[in-house]
Amino acid sequence: MRRWNGWGDEATVVELPAHGAAFLGARLGAGQVLPDASLEQVLAQVPASRLAAHPLISTDAEVRVRHARGQSLPDWLAMREGRFGQFPDGVALPESAEQIRQLLAWARAQDLVVIPYGGGTSVAGHINPQASERPVLTLSLERMTRLLELDEESQIATFGPGAAGPQVESQLRARGYTLGHFPQSWELSTLGGWVASRSSGQQSLRYGRIEQLFAGGKIETFAGTLEIPTFPASSAGPDLREMILGSEGRFGVISEVKVRVSKLAEQEQFYAVFLPSWEQALKGIRSLVQARVPLSMLRLSNAIETETQLALAGHPEQIALLEKYLALRGARAGKCMLTFGVTGNRKQNALSVKQAKQLLKGFGGVFTGTLLGKKWAENRFRFPYLRHGLWAAGYAVDTLETATDWGNVDNLLNQIEDSLRAGLAEEGEPVHVFTHLSHVYGQGSSIYTTYVFRPGQSYEQTLQRWQKLKHNASQTIVNNRGTISHQHGVGRDHAPYLAVEKGELGMAALRSLADHFDPDQRLAPSVLLETHE
Amino acid sequence: MRRWNGWGDEATVVELPAHGAAFLGARLGAGQVLPDASLEQVLAQVPASRLAAHPLISTDAEVRVRHARGQSLPDWLAMREGRFGQFPDGVALPESAEQIRQLLAWARAQDLVVIPYGGGTSVAGHINPQASERPVLTLSLERMTRLLELDEESQIATFGPGAAGPQVESQLRARGYTLGHFPQSWELSTLGGWVASRSSGQQSLRYGRIEQLFAGGKIETFAGTLEIPTFPASSAGPDLREMILGSEGRFGVISEVKVRVSKLAEQEQFYAVFLPSWEQALKGIRSLVQARVPLSMLRLSNAIETETQLALAGHPEQIALLEKYLALRGARAGKCMLTFGVTGNRKQNALSVKQAKQLLKGFGGVFTGTLLGKKWAENRFRFPYLRHGLWAAGYAVDTLETATDWGNVDNLLNQIEDSLRAGLAEEGEPVHVFTHLSHVYGQGSSIYTTYVFRPGQSYEQTLQRWQKLKHNASQTIVNNRGTISHQHGVGRDHAPYLAVEKGELGMAALRSLADHFDPDQRLAPSVLLETHE
């Protein structure tokens, strides 16, 4: 069963290995464990619903608890402490576009706020109810998960918007196809959520971001149904798909998603290469992508992430052997691990691997074969579970991310890491910070930074620490030519920083669209665009 | 010097070869030649300008004539007859974003209509002044053509919006780079125009459409300057780039364009393959693109286009030899020519060519090497000149285009060709119609149809013939799941058909943006969105 106060299925437990605990202990001091609340304690706080009875709406307390929070660190702290703040007044569970339209009409008649809800995996406060005089209805798409149609000739699949990653892939794979969209949240996040938040998957280098995969579909708005046809491309004015991508529930509820799918590839493999320094590694990864070598994924850990990953892997003897091998070949302290993947037919893959190896050799790359790549692939969705292991050991972990042009990647990365590393200096608390680049483009790269710190004496103090770290890093990002998000979206947490990149005029344009589709600001108010009265 | 009443430079003359004239004569009857007006006759019609004097604005009659019309067939007929209808009251020639802002402020103060003007190559009525109580100022970007900055690390080039294809490429090639955007209008059309109309180039398979190449820039609007930063990707809400792409001058004037550029490739080659039938050819091209063989261009002519091209090539003996060779290998009557290109490093290109040949062999493909491919590359921008040769021989030619999903390509193509072929049946006039697919995607393809017909006894009758053909074909397209344009844009000619694909709600959303950026409907009124009062 899915955890009510954390990530994923209860059956999956990822503990922090002893070696990893020692590694963190040496850097952050002994862990600080805070007490967890029980589900019963939380259920006792759920107030009476303000909603009239409706056949499609559950007002059950546990259902409301389970749809009240996402997966940001503030969400985590609230769930662990058992102080949820607001709960939705009810959770609607429609099974069709028609039922979504009925629910929206009812919401207008009853003067409700409506929060569209996919997998509940937001790390930016997309789905948290706010205190509101209007009752809050969370509209979950979890019953709309089916593959409705697969056009094999056009390679377009039509899905219910609530299909989570495994539901998408299993239904497609049964027919020989894949969407190829694998965000780290893949186990729980949904197709509709990916579209609404402009998600990106680990193999975007081959399959594209959700912007490239989203072919069209239906969006139910308070101004009517928007139906977006599936042209492969068009020059007929601004693209309506792009209006919905990143709309984060503000303009409407996605009721049907059409996606561009691919035949399952003949072969897929992942390889690890170690580069002797960050400088060399950065040049290597940029050269690879700018040379258009047809790879399906690229992920470059900086030196601290490489060191941390090897420490947390939990096999110190094997790691020691690996490090000895690498050192002999020139990759010593400061080395950076680059993982790359090829997906396609065998001959093309062989050429791609050969060209990648050749090119990386020019930057001192030490090739280690497929073993570590296989490990990466096996564990690609496990990282979110590690928050549990770290928390139990007395450490809080969060991530943040951006993207910028190549000419600014190193600068911005350093500024972000510095801002986090020094963020709790006033309190004398160290912060362990490391980074990888995992979505690379001809023009630049995403920057994905993880930071680990000790909780304070209380939940409140812990939240304050997070707020300080997050605010400083967010300011650092937008003031240094980074986007406030490359793959997590805006939500409420990033909304205050959005105007720096969109400009006041751009913000006003987005507001004019929100006013057009949702004149009463009934949908996910203050998400994406801060509330304006 | 550029022709005032037709395509391109006066020095370039493309005549219809005798063999081609005979071919058309057999299909359409003897040509019907209509008399051309002289520039002097046209200049005599230009009325006095209604504009006050302004240092950045020319009210010279010839300048106004040269900015009054695009390159649609109605434009051609108007220019040839010398009945231009409306002229702009003046042409502004700014040299900087600051001057554009000054001109917009002046236009507001003077209550003018403003038409942003790039290369004047619109084939959909984007830049034609309409009768208007407000004086009309055409704002030409032809003095803003410079490469302002080239960030080689991030592979981003900053250009003035008025840079035409050759200006873009020559400035980049001098530094070892290419944009790789080659629409057929490349010699005259401009970067700003490509962005505003969502253009696509012949090698979009490698370089992407202008949507993928446009990285950001500046747009001067009546609500202020919109500055779009250059992130490689972002999930921070709807993408403002996509709001400007396809805005066709309705929202603002593009004053600076940043584009994603590539290093010049080591090798580029084009090959021709003949497929024995349209059915086989269609399957072949779809297989190629769905298998993701890294090609840089694909163009498939249907049987009639193949036959027409070979007839119009003007070397009947050589063509006869080619046809003999093809027939021996199974490509006889009904054969279809497929041209494909590879651009990249030699090893990758060799593998791509090998895989393409192998795959096409499975569909009966007869490979002919690089000779015809070279011809295609040499002549890739000559087709628009052929209108002159055809007109002189007494034939009118026009093209129209759309895109649709693979499952609908054959159906839509046939419907379009049928509608054109039978379009003048009431008058007993045949129409020669042929088609190619030149932009292919995993999900579908563009459909590019050329139609040749005889002018009537008068210009008026000729225009009526065109209107009938164009209207029927446009209806056919939008009523059969095609987009009203894959690469030419909407302009005024396609605006009446746009609502079928955007829906009333989508149209209203676009209108809300137009109202936001241009509340007085001063910019290119009735382009893209029909005027609404």
UniProtKB/TrEMBL annotation, chains A, B:
Q: Which cofactor does it need?
A: FAD
Q: From which domain of life does this come?
A: Bacteria
| Keyword Isomerase among record annotations | no
Might you name a Gene Ontology BP term for this protein? lipid biosynthetic process
Domain annotation FAD-binding PCMH-type: ranges: 84-264
**Spans traversing the lipid bilayer:** none
Which positions are annotated as binding substrate? Answer: 387
**What's one Pfam family the UniProt record gives for this protein?**
FAD_binding_4
Q: Does the keyword Flavoprotein apply?
A: yes
Q: Where is this site: Important for enzyme activity?
A: 299
The active site of this protein is located at 448
Any one Gene Ontology MF annotation carried by this entry is: FAD binding
User: Which family does the entry's similarity section mention?
Assistant: Belongs to the FAD-binding oxidoreductase/transferase type 4 family.
* Protein's name in the database: FAD-binding oxidoreductase
User: What is the protein's species of origin?
Assistant: Aquipseudomonas ullengensis
